[in-house]
Design goal:
Layout: E1 2-6, H1 13-24, E2 27-30, H2 31-44, H3 52-61, E3 64-69, E4 72-77, E5 80-81, H4 89-98, H5 102-116, E6 121-125, H6 128-132, E7 138-143, H7 146-159, H8 166-182, E8 195-198, H9 204-215
Parallel strand pairs: 1-6, 1-7, 2-6, 7-8
Antiparallel strand pairs: 3-4, 4-5
Helix pairs in contact: 1-9, 2-4, 3-5, 4-8, 7-8
The structure holds 2'-deoxycytidine-5'-monophosphate (DC).
Length: about 220
């Protein structure tokens, strides 16, 4: 079974997707983490994020994979653990630009489809229902209002030791949503078959129970 969870930044997709996968015994694939890992490499190698040829070369030559250690998911790129690095504010600021190039998305989508082959998965991102898993049995679109998403991102950053003011986080999210929604290929959108869940006034547990009820046909 394939389950797609798409939606804007900070809607709680990763937390819900991870828990849903745990409950169902499925593999969880965080596609945002993959675009972030590539972006970290772009920064490390001082590549111009508008230089599609250089980006293409990089994306084709790095190996991104996930590992699981006592229930925790780690993302590795060429053997290097990037789990913490991909959450740095400089990565968040650049990732949407890197992800905007159709040639780069083609490489990433192919890798994501390979990861999902022959296994049951919960995959979260922006274009999962439309491009990566068009045949997914369930396509959720998880959203929340901007205030709630900003609060959640601020709390997440604070847990990781960053203090960034509320307004800066809010602007970064709005900017990223705009760029993720307006790109030509793999843009963020609600599909005709999407099951929309607004998590503004729901806890993670309530969102999870809603999804489980739908999947288990209650
Ligand atoms: O889910 P996230 O905030 O970690 O995603 C980071 C960025 O990666 C997001 O702003 C856009 C990009 N992304 C994408 O273009 N397609 C996906 N399937 C997942 C993420």
């Amino acid at each position: 079974m394939k389950i797609a969870i798409d939606g804007p930044a900070g809607a709680g997709k990763s937390t819900v997707a991870r828990k849903l996968a745990q409950q169902l015994g499925f593999v969880y694939i965080d596609t945002g983490a993959m675009y972030r890992a590539l972006t970290w490499k772009v920064l490390q190698n001082k590549i111009d994020p508008e230089n599609v040829e250089a980006l293409y070369e990089l994306a084709n030559n790095i190996r991104i994979h996930f590992e699981y250690h006592s229930g925790q998911q780690k993302i590795l790129c060429d053997g290097e653990d990037l789990t913490a690095a991909i959450r740095l504010p400089e990565v968040s600021a650049l990732v949407s630009t890197v992800a905007s190039h159709p040639a780069i998305r083609k490489i990433m989508v192919k890798q994501q489809q390979e990861m999902a082959r022959n296994v049951s998965v919960v995959m979260d991102g922006r274009d999962i229902g439309e491009c990566v898993l068009p045949d997914a049995e369930y396509k959720f679109y998880l959203t929340a209002n901007i205030e709630e998403r900003t609060h959640r991102r601020a709390a997440e950053l604070s847990d990781s030791g960053f203090t960034i003011d509320y307004e800066t986080i809010s602007q970064e999210i709005i900017q990223r949503d705009k760029s993720d929604s307006e790109r030509e290929v793999g843009s963020l959108k609600i599909l005709a078959e999407s099951i929309v869940i607004d998590s503004s006034n729901l806890t993670i547990e309530q969102v999870l129970q809603k999804m489980l009820a739908i999947i288990q046909g209650e």
